[in-house]
Here is the input.
Amino acid sequence: MGKSLYTIVCLLLAAGCASEPGVRPGDLRCENLHAPLAVDNTQPRFSWKIHADGAFSQSAYEILVASDSLLLRPGSADLWSSGKVASSRSVMVPYGGRELAAPSLAYWKVRVWDAAGRCSAWSPAARFGVGILDRAGWPGRYIGMEGVGAPLLRKGFRIDGKKGTYLLHVNSLGYHEVWLNGEKVSGEVLSPAVSQLDKRSLAVTYDMTHLVREGANDLVLWLGRGWYRPATFGAAHDGPLVNARLDEVTSGECRTLLVSDGSWTGRDSGYADTEGTTWLPLQFGGECVDGAKVPAGLSAAELDNLAWSPVGEADVPAVHVTPRMCEPNCIRDTVLPVSLRRTADGVWVADMGRAVNGWIELALPPMEKGRRVRIEYCDWIADDGSFRSQEGNTLFEDAYIAAGTEREIFRNKFNHHAFQYVRISNIPAAPVRLAAYPIQSDFGDASSFECSDPELNAIYDMVKYTFRNLAFGGYVVDCPHLERMGYGGDGNASCNSFQTLYDAAPLYMNWMQMWGDCIREDGGMPHNVPNPYPAGGGPYWCGFIVTASWQTYLNYGDDRLLVRYYPAMQRWLEYAERHMADGLLRRWPDTDYRGWYLGDWLAPSGVDYTAQLSVDLVSNCFLSDCYATMAKIAAHLQHPDDASSYRAKRDALNGRIHAAFFNSAGSCYATGSQIDQIYPMLVGATDEALVPAVTERLFRTTREQLGGHIGCGLVGVTVLTEWAIRNGCADFVRSMLKRHGEPGYLHMLDRGATTTWESWNGERSKIHNCYNGIGAWFIQALAGIRPDEAEPGYRHVLIAPQLPQGVAWVKAAKQTPYGTVRVEWELDADRFTARVAVPANSTATFCLPADRAGCRVDGRRVHASDDRIRLESGVHTVAFVRGNRQDNLLNHK
Here is the structure.
């Protein structure tokens, strides 16, 4: 069909399309990112949400992609015009147009049709870019300054006839900031994301068009070491390095204007590491800022007054260089102290009122040049009021060397701290101003929760806020200050909760990329990423690549991880199978990249989670879970033989688990701890006929031996949470959450915590990812909002609120790839009423309890035998009278 005829057809179709009022696609994403400037492939996928005034089900879509936004119209889109495609798909729709260049910039929009053939308005236009995908795309050299930890690198360039878009591609070994004509190009901090630097470094692309001038321009790259150090990744250069390329993009054409090379100049910025800063565990140290060396500003006029030296070009070992595929770090808030008190001569202590992971900015009183100010951080004040170290005698600190001017300002730049308290020493008077700047990844909030019980609300808020402090740099750390590690065990324990509470699929793309880069030739996996040194863990840590990839697909409808890392998952399972004996996984040897062999971790005192029986049970149950997950992954990827094989392996292993660890006399698995009782039931190793007795033993142990408290650790909290959600044991969970005293979340809150701890007794870190697996329970149990494995990504939503004693109402929302699911319910005496909102282009099933009568949905009477009610998009009301409820759990008054 000729272009002119195609144009006529498109116009006729548009003219004949009955418009759907109040319907428009929005929240456009490419590769699950908002307007990314550089994705890592030439076949990106598009997603959108449909904003509709009422019910809406998509029957078709049309996507336009063009090299210029002015070409985004039917008949003119030069890269792809999909035409009207009969499909309900609106999440991760693959690009199907002309081959995209790398690098390149493109624009797109979409419109949709409903079942009646009425089309929506076009969405707003969005853009995306393809990044540099091979080494040939980096014609410049790595440059830096030998022995300088935070150099300023500078280069001038001219623009004669400004046109198009100006994109700067930056691949730094270490952190970087970009400044143009005296202005910071973006609000990003600590860029790029973290990667396994001996295997891969990441590139970030910036749009500098808004700052580019006609004529002379002055570009500055400010570098910092970050993870690029001899002690971590064997850095080949004493200082950070960068490779950069500046392009002018016009009407689909890309012209390179500037690259990094020896013609650049550099100087020391005045920032350096404090003594002992290696970025090994407990040695993250801090920054020393020499106020006399730090430039007052970065405009060309100010920089011209400083001395500059030639930069050095460096040869570095070849590794993969790929675009960063996750959200950047940003500063989300400003936190001011709730108190500032003088504790000794020249010493002041500030309480920020809550835990913070990030930077501070400190305005100091005038003082003589060369005076060294000490700035120390901790996350807890001891009972006697003393400033407590965070690990033995380790204190994390910064330093400021006075310039002897009226304006003395300290501000972090390339390191960060996790703290609530700041101590400033050796100053002649009180600080002029102190502010903290929390650093967090720029992903979206995906949940809200409130109920009639203030203590449950406080636990939910604490868990959710903790995640904000742990998720940065393209992964979720165990703690931001002591180790800064993306442990697989902590990741597994928090994955479902974190993904339920936040919209962060791209973060897992970066995190799993590190795991894929870390697998060894024999299929062995480490316990942590990045993996510059060995760390402790067990199978639950190593198999994170399996379980997190599936959870990302289940929660976000994004299967890229399944496709990319299925071979790595298989290799790791083969490695595990080589360490099986008599059909059970046994302890494997420590290696130079991995140590220990854990089951659960950091359970309360009195619970022997290190007992070999428990360790072996937990590890084999996790392997069973991995087999079950791999069967689902294989089926999705259309490998039916693999799926059948993994199901058979899971069944065989479950039989061995029951035979080896079950004591029929006491209905007890292994040691009888909470995790030992629950995990076999969760993975299906317990025969259904035995479940009541095993469950009763669990409740009795919790009541009689644990005093009604939680009795498990990092792994167990998540296992318990998932089992309780699936089995409707909301009373069991609520009764434990409501316990004051150790161990428990209320114990943390009663002690002033704003973030969850590393251990139930409060030792070590007070900002940690150990016990956050409970977070999903509030949304998935009390509100009842859960994804359906048959239609992942909340394409179909399961809604089954659980009604524990003492909770009279719940208001919750869950942001999904299709829009927001809302559930608000209340229980007045025995009358239950829920208002449920289902987003456009998705459906839901409301699961009714058996003990109900007189049920109505949207005023329509529901037959007594109907226990699952299908809800289309829109707002619905569900009401029924609750019957006799059997509280056979802990019977706590």
User: Anything to note?
Assistant: The chain has a mean pLDDT of 94. The first helix runs from residue 3 to 15. The first strand starts at residue 23 and ends at 30. The chain has five domains: 3-130, 135-326, 330-441, 444-782, 796-882.
